[in-house]
Amino acid sequence: MTLADAEQQEPTELPPPRTRTAASLARQRRRAALARFWRGYRAHRAGLIGLGGLAVIALVAVAAPLLVGDHVRSVTAATGAPLAAPSPRYPLGTDQFGRSLLGLLVWGARVSLTVGLLAAALSVAIGTLVGVVAGHFGGVLSTVVMRVTDWFLVMPTLVLAIVLATVMSRSVWTVIIAIGVTSWPTTARLVRAQTIAVESRPYIERARALGGGHRHVMTRHVLPNVMPLVLAQTTLGISAAILTEATLAFLGLGDPTVVSWGGMLQDAREAGAVSSGHWWYLAPPGIAIAVVALAFTLCGRAVESVLNPRLGVGR
């Protein structure tokens, strides 16, 4: 090819640069935010300990049918001596029916964790909705809503939960609803304060000037900014929900057909384990409740510290 032929040849067009859609940019920002969050969370040793403990407990709860089998919950299938002390065959002893307390403890983790997670999620969902609506609209609506919130706040949560669990049918869902609808006021107060702070920022005024309505402002601007607070409140509320579930079950207001840690304590009390000195019946479920509550609290404090470093939560 001569130089003249090369000059006459049309130049090769370069491919257009690949455009990045808004969805891909949003996914990239979320991945970067999660990476930053994990780097900050890893710096909290106590939070890692709590997360590791919860991972082990959750794995044991999920694998309960494989680890101990379903027959361990049956009274008719029990083969051990009633209230037997710990032994190689029964590492944690037996209950008054001769069932293995280790197997019951593993099965009880499923109910306790489920109730704690769902009850905390329901409580935070109600509190977030009430807080965002009250903080966004203000005026008479905010005043009325917050007075109702104050009424729930000053009433003892456990007393309200006991009343609801008493008038409703005895089931796991009753316990979840009783805990969820009585423990949301603290979240509502926090979310309302955060909503008011967010809506005072200039970009909210620009969004309204461009035609953004109430739904757009609350879902696209306010809610994403209060979600870190909601996440931290959820992790802290799970431990309280687990303790409340154990208390309701201990008072005989839980579902008698399922095995939970609080129900095990109730059975131990009815069997006279306290007066007869059968410590192996009382200690395992009590320690399990304390360990799970502590693990969720450690995780919640770590999450709260990462999302709001000004709190200065110890590492």
What do you see in this structure?
- This protein has 14 helices and no strands.
- The protein is mainly alpha-helical and 315 residues long.
- The chain has a single domain, classed as MetI-like (MetI-like fold).
- Helix 5 crosses helix 12 and helix 11 runs parallel beside helix 12.
- It is elongated, with a radius of gyration of 27 Å.
- The model has no long low-confidence stretch (mean pLDDT 83).
Keywords:
0% strand, MetI-like fold, mainly alpha
Q: What's this, in brief?
A:
The chain has a single domain, classed as MetI-like (MetI-like fold), CATH 1.10.3720.10.
Order of helices and strands: HHHHHHHHHHHHHH
Count of alpha and pi helical runs:
14
Structural class assignment: mainly alpha
Question: Low-confidence parts lasting 5 or more residues at pLDDT below 50?
Answer: none
- Summarize model confidence as the mean pLDDT: 83
Helix content: over 70%
CATH class: Mainly Alpha
Portion in strands: under 5%
CATH level-four homologous superfamily name: MetI-like
Count the strands? 0
